[in-house]
Design goal:
Number of domains: 1
Keywords: Oxidoreductase
Strand content: 5-15%
CATH superfamily: NAD(P)-binding Rossmann-like Domain
Shape: globular
CATH architecture: 3-Layer(aba) Sandwich
Structural class: alpha/beta
Order of helices and strands: EHEHEHEHEHHHEEH
Number of helices: 8
CATH topology: Rossmann fold
Distance between the termini: 33 Å
Pfam families: adh_short_C2
Strand order of the largest sheet: 3-4-5-6-7
CATH class: Alpha Beta
GO molecular function: oxidoreductase activity
Largest sheet: 5 strands, mixed
């Protein structure tokens, strides 16, 4: 997007890594309009402060990309009292989107793009369980809740699209593929890390993994809303992800959990 001349704001927790990324992007794209703003998705206060800064400093917002992928920490508690994984991957993405909607609506046609995963197809979700922190820890439990966080993203997109009908804002989500990023290095389970070493040659590069998100952000072909995409194509999510009543229940529960009404 920077190569296309867009103003890009990287919302990141780690300032050192973010500033290094800004520097590299500016050099590679010759676009100086690339910036960093601090955002810690494990803190609702940080989300609200970030949103306030954006609303006060930007005249328009054409594209919001929710790209959170915490793969560990399901039983770690945040300052807000929720699972680190669930808050970072889903709750804060919901809150951030809601807070920035006024600017998105003032910048039509604008787009909300959220990264999910094909793994959402392997689980179900009880919205009331989002406020609980799983006890104990094992690889299977951790994986199940990661999958659930990605199912929440698809369900959020379905209901968000309904709320945004005729607003000039579209909402879609995507599976980027299995991407070879530093996130994989943060997995603490030895057997999973060994497995990842075996399949790294089969997974996508970061550039390849970004293509569907870039397509949804920039392509004039994308006019629909509420879709789930993979390989730059509209595809079918799980049957659970298409449950409109479940999406509504999740939405109502999430509004309460993040204190946004």
């Amino acid at each position: 997007m920077a190569e296309r001349g867009a103003r890009v704001i990287l919302a990141c927790r780690n300032e050192e890594k973010a500033l290094d990324a800004v520097k590299q992007i500016r050099i590679l794209t010759r676009n100086e309009d690339v910036h960093y703003q601090n955002l810690d998705l494990a803190s609702f206060d940080s989300v609200r402060k970030f949103a306030t800064r954006i609303l006060n400093s930007q005249k328009r917002l054409d594209v919001l990309v929710n790209n959170a992928g915490v793969v560990d920490g399901v039983n770690q508690k945040t300052e807000d009292g929720y699972s680190l994984m669930i808050q970072s991957n889903y709750l804060s993405s919901f809150l951030l989107t809601m807070l920035l909607l006024p600017l998105l609506k003032a910048s039509p046609p604008s787009r909300v793009i959220s990264l999910s995963s094909f793994t959402h197809k392997y689980v179900n979700i009880n919205p009331e369980e989002l406020s609980t922190i799983p006890q104990g820890w094992n690889p299977m439990l951790n994986n199940i809740w990661y999958f659930r966080s990605k199912l929440c993203i698809v369900l959020m997109t379905v209901e968000l699209a309904r709320h945004l009908k005729d607003s000039g804002v579209t909402a879609n989500c995507l599976h980027p593929g299995v991407v070879n990023t530093n996130m994989l290095n943060n997995i603490n389970v030895t057997i999973i890390r060994l497995f990842m070493k075996v399949i790294r040659s089969l997974v996508k590069t970061s550039w390849e993994g970004a293509q569907t998100a870039i397509y949804l952000a920039t392509s004039p072909e994308v006019e629909s809303s509420g879709g789930y995409y993979a390989e730059c194509k509209l595809t079918n999510p799980s049957r659970t992800a298409c449950n409109v009543e479940l999406a509504k229940r999740l939405w109502d529960t999430t509004e309460r959990l993040v204190n946004f009404y």
